[in-house]
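Retro notes (design track)

What went well: tokenization of the new backbones is finally stable.
What didn't: we kept losing track of which sequence belonged to which structure.
Fix going forward: every design gets posted as structure first, then sequence, in one message. First example under the new rule, 417 residues:
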């Protein structure tokens, strides 16, 4: 999947790869793929030897008639010379050798196929007026999401035993105009989610446990085994198997979790019309310290994976996602900006203004504040004139962790006091 921005509207592009069974004989299809490969090679050879920059117009002039006389349709010809040029360009810019094409694979323009997702059939227009009908082998569920998307190009392949088709689907993302901001803090034990309106009022605060401790247990097992068999572990079958088993568990736990969180977060954001505010993990690395909340043994991959799923699910629902440099968000006072000091377990206190708060809640408040100061046009910058006065001494945040979450002040003072 990829996102690209064309003009103002972001576009989501996703390839749908699926097995395809020819209905009836597939001689024509194989013949087409061979002809396509040979024609592509021929053009690659010609373009390779021409050292001038070739415009689209020039390519057309040089190769179009030739290709059409071989039996290709107009758009086949265009795909072939454009693809040949891109192959040569990328080989030359990498200092590589002239590309040699062995695989049977063809790019087909949208004008040269008919796709029927209801009946799961694909009709390809081939050379010399031939056609091939293919049955797409996939579950209805996998296809369902692409209905209503635009499809613009596909690649058909033969791998020696069967045919594969990758269809490229495209959808314009119409971004939902945000009415609230949802900031998300990821740390070792928890994911904390806070929804604010643009006046700084806290509408919702939620916390989920992460499976990090579980993952870490598997990680520790792997390390123990590796320590017991230094270097040679790769070559001992049973040892390698044990390590793979733990790796498999880590993968499935983390993906399961990331998908669930992504879905949950995006649903909540949709309900509140939120712009989703995430920490920019790249900036985190730049900042030097990963901070205590990111366990070194686990690295950043888990956080990245979770963010990826959140972003993916958000884009599926046309929600906006913004990334903010997390520097200072977990250590500075949300009220006056001074460095906070440890007060109790996971509770921090500001020595200057006496603010006391739960570590996770502080992080989401600060993230929200940073977002508002960076994107003031998203809402009303600062506190609205008629907003109630913020709680001057939110001492209710002391005590047990989840009491602290419940008692977080519902208004956050965006100005220094
Ligand atoms: Zn303070």
């Amino acid at each position: 999947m990829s996102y690209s921005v064309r003009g103002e509207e972001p576009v989501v592009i996703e390839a749908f790869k699926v097995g395809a069974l020819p209905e009836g004989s597939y001689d024509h299809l194989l013949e087409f793929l061979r002809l396509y490969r040979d024609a592509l090679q021929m053009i690659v050879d010609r373009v390779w030897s021409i050292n001038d920059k070739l415009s689209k117009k020039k390519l057309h002039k040089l190769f179009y008639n030739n290709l059409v006389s071989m039996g290709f349709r107009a758009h086949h010809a265009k795909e072939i010379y454009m693809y040949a040029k891109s192959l040569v360009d990328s080989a030359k810019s990498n200092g590589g050798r002239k590309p040699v094409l062995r695989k049977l694979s063809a790019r087909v323009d949208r004008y040269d196929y008919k796709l029927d997702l209801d009946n799961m059939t694909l009709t390809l227009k081939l050379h010399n007026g031939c056609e091939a009908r293919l049955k797409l082998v996939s579950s209805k569920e996998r296809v369902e999401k692409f209905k209503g998307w635009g499809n613009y190009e596909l690649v058909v392949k033969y791998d020696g035993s069967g045919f594969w088709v990758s269809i490229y689907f495209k959808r314009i993302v119409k971004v939902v105009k945000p009415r609230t901001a949802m900031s998300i803090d990821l740390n070792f034990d928890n994911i904390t989610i806070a929804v604010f309106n643009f006046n700084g009022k806290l509408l919702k605060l939620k916390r989920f446990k992460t499976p990090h401790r579980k993952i870490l247990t598997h990680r520790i097992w792997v390390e123990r085994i590796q320590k017991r068999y230094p270097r040679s572990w790769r070559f001992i079958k049973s040892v390698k198997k044990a390590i793979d088993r733990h790796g498999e568990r880590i993968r499935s736990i983390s993906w399961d979790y990331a998908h669930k969180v992504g879905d949950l977060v995006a649903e909540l954001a949709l309900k509140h019309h939120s712009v989703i505010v995430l920490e920019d993990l790249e900036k985190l690395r730049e900042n030097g310290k990963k901070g205590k909340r990111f366990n070194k043994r686990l690295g950043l991959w888990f956080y990245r994976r979770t963010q990826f799923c959140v972003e993916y699910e958000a884009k599926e629902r046309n929600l906006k996602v913004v990334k903010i440099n997390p520097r200072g968000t977990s250590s500075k006072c949300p009220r006056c900006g001074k460095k906070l000091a440890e007060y109790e377990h996971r509770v921090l206190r500001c020595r200057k203004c006496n603010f006391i708060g739960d570590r996770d809640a502080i992080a989401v408040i600060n993230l929200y504040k940073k977002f508002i100061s960076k994107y003031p046009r998203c809402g009303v910058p600062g506190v609205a004139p008629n907003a109630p006065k913020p709680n001057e001494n939110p001492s209710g945040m002391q005590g047990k962790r989840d009491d602290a979450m419940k008692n977080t002040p519902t208004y956050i003072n965006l100005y220094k006091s």
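Added context from the reviewer: Confidence is low (pLDDT under 50) at residues 1-7, 379-417.
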